[in-house]
């Protein structure tokens, strides 16, 4: 086990009366839950490892039953815990796809070479994701489209963008 984890969901509440929990997946690949035998739960500074008894889907949620969690009360205590996996278990993504955690804190530059700011968030929309970049005096929202994002260099934590005219003035 490493000291690096990847958040794949958050427990929102208990489900049923057998100790199941309802998880809102924060991964684009919710099916990945089926490949897991254990996960880590984190809230604040507390981190614990739990073994999975079974997983099922209900509507847009992942339902997890952990061994040793057998009642509504025990399941309710897990509310608001993040569900994490060891970084070594993350899936290899197709080319030009990235984990949000890998993009956060990248330095963002314009194609001209000017420094724009630091990527502080990626906003998931129903269409194109939005890069939230914190500049010196303001924040910029840039669509993460192939036309605007020219290069992502994770090794050097650097992103080069060519925004459409006027978008930086918004």
UniProtKB/TrEMBL annotation:
Keywords: Chaperone, Cytoplasm, Ribosome biogenesis, rRNA processing. Residues 101-164 form the Ribosome maturation factor RimM PRC barrel domain. Belongs to the RimM family. Residues 7-88 form the RimM N-terminal domain. NCBIfam families: 16S_RimM (TIGR02273). It comes from the Bacteria. It comes from Halanaerobium kushneri. One of its GO terms (cellular component) is ribosome. This is Ribosome maturation factor RimM.
